[in-house]
Every structure is written in structure tokens, then in C-alpha cells.
Design goal:
This protein is α/β, with parallel strands linked by helices. It has 8 helices and 12 strands. The chain is 37% helix and 20% strand. Bound molecules: zinc ion. Zinc ion binds next to loops.
Length: 311
């Protein structure tokens, strides 16, 4: 039987409705957005790490190749890791071959447990396994609720592939370039580039909107930014904050802030100011209007001062 005109209309209407329903479902699917072809990002919220919801503050996501999927960061709890995993299965049935962690901070790695599988490799900076070892106790006491009520040391998953130099991972028709950095935002920073779409997943080497948190080296971080500026990329997924469509948009404000921190802390030291005086004066008025400035800025000055006083 050939469909009548009316039937064809209903069929097309139904198909269009189903397609719309599927795409809105994808949007509701853990707020995942396809930010470049086969690159999906879930953006974290700007909540203080001491508050409820601290497990969902980092940007996390995944890249789909012809053969398999690579995850980039897993969130700050096993629960967030599970949500990410479930949302991936609604988009692709391909296996997850790599979980890449951009650095050691809890908000990027505690979801790893959700992805443990004999076919999945965990990948990180050459310093990451050691950094996780050093932080296991801290994670277990500080973020027990983000793991499980009976959490054990072994619930915090370390990388089994350590990256010492620029390295390529194959997903099938799609190559990722991983570049490790020396001490900068942390001691274990690694970036991921999807070569096909020129998408940079920077981890916390780039913050937008949310104030950067310095736990490594201020001078090292500024050097890392100089290297990142030379990359040929079109889309930037920062560790925190909105996706950017150019490197300049992604980096400018953070670079201004880190330079301000460098110059004004150096000046305070040269003027013989003590650390608490420096903390009381430098960028008190939050010139660049960062979110959570009150919470994080004085910790950054403390770190900068300790680094620069030995120059
Ligand atoms: Zn971090």
C-alpha cells in the first residue's frame, strides 16, 4: 500500500517531532553540548569547593572516534562520573578506551571509579600517579561524601598510562594530541587537542569566569600560557567557565590576572611588605570581576608571595 498524502504528512510530522524530542533529550542529557564535531562537553557550576554541589564544578566531556571514546576528566564524585557515563551511552555504544585526567585536583578525577573496566586505560601526566598517591588520604577525609559512605583508598583511580612528552592517542579516524606541562596551575597539568576539529581541552591551565586557583607556580603558569598561545586551535574548553571560540578570548583575562598577581606581589615584596599586608592590598576590588574572588584570591597571593620572595 502506498502512503496517502495525508499519511505522508503525519509520517513526516512524527519523524520531525521524534528528531526534536531526541535532540532536546540530548540537551537534557546531563547538559551535554556538542561543542565541536563529536566533542561533547558538560560545563561545571561556579560553586565554592566547600559548598554542596562541589562535585560538579569542573568542565568534563568526551570525544568519539570511529572505534572508541576518550573521556576528558570525570568530575568530582563517583556520582558525577556515573552520570557522565550514562549520558555517553545515550549518544554512542562505542567502548570507552581512554579516561584522560588533566591534573590531580579532586573535581577532575574522583569520578574515575565509574569508568573502571578491563578495556579502559587511564591516562595522565607523568607526575599524576604520584600526586594521587600523595592526596589519597586528603581526598578520603575531605571528600568522602563524593566517593561513597564506605570509600576505600582503592576507590581513587590512578592512571596506568603516564605521559612524559607530547603523545598521540588513536580513537579510529581521530587522533588526540596530549601535551604535558611542567609545574604551572598544578604539578600534573596536561592538555588534550582533538586534531580533527582543532579543539583544545585545556584542563585548569585555562579558567574563565571563575577565578583561577594557583597551586603550582605562577611563573610556570605564565610560561605555559605562552606555549598554549602558539597552538593552532579553533575551540577551547577551559577547565572552568564557558567554551571559547578563540584562544585569545579564552586566555586574555586569565593572563591579565596572573600578570597582575606577578607584578603587584613582586612590588609588595620589594617594598618590604609582609605577606598579610600584600593580601590586604593587592587587587582588593577584584578589577577583572572574577566569580569567587573573595574565596580564592588571597590564597593565590599567598602562593605567589611564597614563590616570588626567593627571587
Ligand atoms: Zn584544578
Amino acid at each position: 500500500m502506498f502512503p496517502t498524502k495525508k499519511f505522508t504528512f503525519y509520517l513526516l510530522f512524527t519523524l520531525a517531532f521524534l528528531r526534536a524530542a531526541t535532540s532536546s533529550e540530548t540537551n537534557q542529557n546531563f547538559n551535554l553540548t556538542e561543542i565541536a564535531e563529536n566533542n561533547y562537553a558538560h560545563l561545571g557550576k561556579h560553586v565554592s569547593i566547600e559548598n554542596r554541589g562541589n562535585d560538579d564544578i569542573a568542565n568534563i566531556g568526551f570525544i568519539i572516534g570511529a572505534d572508541c571514546v576518550a573521556i576528558i576528566d570525570t568530575g568530582g564524585s563517583i556520582n558525577i562520573g556515573k552520570k557522565l557515563k550514562n549520558s555517553i551511552h545515550k549518544i554512542t555504544k562505542k567502548p570507552i578506551c581512554y579516561v584522560i585526567n588533566t591534573h590531580v585536583h579532586f573535581d577532575h578525577i574522583l569520578g574515575n571509579k565509574a569508568f573502571v573496566n578491563k578495556n579502559t586505560n587511564f591516562v595522565g601526566h607523568k607526575n599524576l600517579a604520584e600526586a594521587i598517591n600523595q592526596n589519597r588520604d586528603f581526598f578520603l577525609t575531605q571528600f568522602k561524601n563524593n566517593l561513597s559512605p564506605d570509600a576505600k583508598m582503592s576507590d581513587i583511580i590512578s592512571p596506568n598510562i603516564l605521559i612524559e612528552e607530547s603523545t598521540q592517542l588513536e580513537l579510529g579516524g581521530r587522533t588526540l594530541t596530549l601535551i604535558p606541562f611542567t609545574i604551572s596551575h598544578s604539578h600534573s597539568d596536561l592538555i588534550v587537542i582533538d586534531n580533527k576539529t582543532k579543539t583544545l581541552w585545556s584542563g585548569d591551565l585555562i579558567f574563565r569566569e571563575r577565578i583561577p586557583s594557583l597551586t603550582g607556580s605562577l611563573k610556570g603558569w605564565l610560561e605555559a600560557i605562552e606555549k598554549i598561545k602558539k597552538l593552532d586551535v579553533k575551540v577551547v574548553v577551559p577547565g572552568h567557565g564557558d567554551v571559547a571560540s578563540s584562544l585569545n578570548d579564552a586566555i586574555k583575562k586569565q593572563e591579565d590576572y596572573l600578570n597582575l598577581l606577578l607584578n603587584e606581589t613582586r612590588q609588595a615584596i620589594n617594598e618590604g611588605k609582609f605577606i598579610n599586608e600584600a593580601m590586604e592590598t593587592i587587587d582588593k576590588d577584584n578589577q577583572l570581576k572574577w566569580i569567587l574572588h573573595d574565596y580564592q584570591h588571597s590564597t593565590n597571593i599567598n602562593r605567589a608571595y611564597t614563590e616570588l620572595e626567593w627571587e
